[in-house]
TrEMBL record:
A family per Pfam: Galactosyl_T
Protein name: Hexosyltransferase
GO molecular function, one term: N-acetyl-beta-D-glucosaminide beta-(1,3)-galactosyltransferase activity
Pathway(s) where this gene product acts: Protein modification; protein glycosylation
EC annotation from Swiss-Prot or TrEMBL: 2.4.1.-
Top EC category: transferase
Record organism: Crenichthys baileyi (White River springfish)
Membrane topology: Single-pass type II membrane protein
Transmembrane segments: 88-106
Leader sequence residues: none
Major localization listed first in the record, in broad terms: Golgi
Lineage, uppermost ranks: Eukaryota, Metazoa, Chordata, Craniata, Vertebrata
Protein family according to the UniProt entry: Belongs to the glycosyltransferase 31 family.
Domain of life: Eukaryota
Amino acid sequence: MSLSLQAISKFSERAVHGIGKKLDICFKHFLFNRCTPGDDPQLSLGSSDCDKFSSWVFPLKVCAALCLSMEGYHIKCEKAPWKGSRRWLYFAMLSLMMGVLIFYSWSSLALSPSLGWRKDSLSSYSDGNKTTAVESISPHHLPSQFFVEYPHQYHFILDEPNRCQQESPFLVVIIPVAPQSREARDIIRSTWGRETQVFGQLVSYYFLLGKSRIGNDTEPLDEQILLESQKHHDVLQSNFLDSYRNLTIKTMVMLEWLSTHCLNTSYAMKIDSDTFLNVHNLVNMLLKAPHHDYMTGLVARGALVLRDPNSKWFLSSNAFPESSYPPYALGLGYVFSLDLPKRILEASRYVKAVYIEDVYVGLCMRHVGVPLTDPPHNGLFMTTINKPDVCYLASVIATLLQDSEQILEVWKVFKTQPRNDC
């Protein structure tokens, strides 16, 4: 920004308004080594000029104060009867103040564009609360409670780094479960989690945990989980906080693990810990399924977005403006081919991570352009069970129960009751 001497001179008049004509002449003389005639015309600066020069006000006032302090020496424009050393001292002080003034103005101009860009970028982010987002979503600038911190670099505290690669199973079943739910894990290990060889295919099971703040008075929970892991070699624990709101993070961490640890595996299943699983029916279906671009389960199509703030799955119109969700597989249990985890993870860079886990996977699937596949027939994935009937249990792949303890009851019926009439 270039400023004419006249413009600066006129702005100085505004900056030191009220000091008086004598001070103004003195101020100009020291700054520019020039005098203003007695009949100096009054030039006015508009509001836009004042805005342009606003960053100069403070240094000008300081210079004016220095000049005022010299009033007692009777400075005149024509000649200044000062001693040389004193004159040079004041000249040095004013030169220093002018340097500060120039730096102050330059800094203001230099910083303004970056501050403006930051403001614009944040407002753009806030206005773009749609399903897909621009590149490099930052989870630290999420607009509300409807989104979770993903993508993010989580790491595993407990891992089985080589097991999946060494076993090369046909199917990997991952059960997300709370850290403190040891009983639920043991129930699954003693029921359908024992089915490891089905139709000549190897099936492996892993429990996925986050971190919990809950502990035991006598023994920390982390130590209990470590001992459990050393005993069963089926525990995966990551460093995110394990909570319902973080189920999306849990699922994405699962996909990260599968994409790097199970390179020779054909399929994976995510299933809740309070669900009965008929592993034989599952493997039988997968033996006839596509090996690529495949995801199936209880597929929801045209599901409406719940706008009731009291709903467990509430999403505001600002967070998700669409009235219905794209197709997605309900989180009780869904199966997918192992080419999908990397593609879903790639999509997560562009799709904002809503806290509803199964919906988010559906959003990522839409982003990569892979349609969900309905099961071969209805009734394979169920959300309710009227009674533990053996024929019903023999016909399903997965059915949601009241809790994990009910698995024991259902499993006993499934294994002991005859199926002659089914």
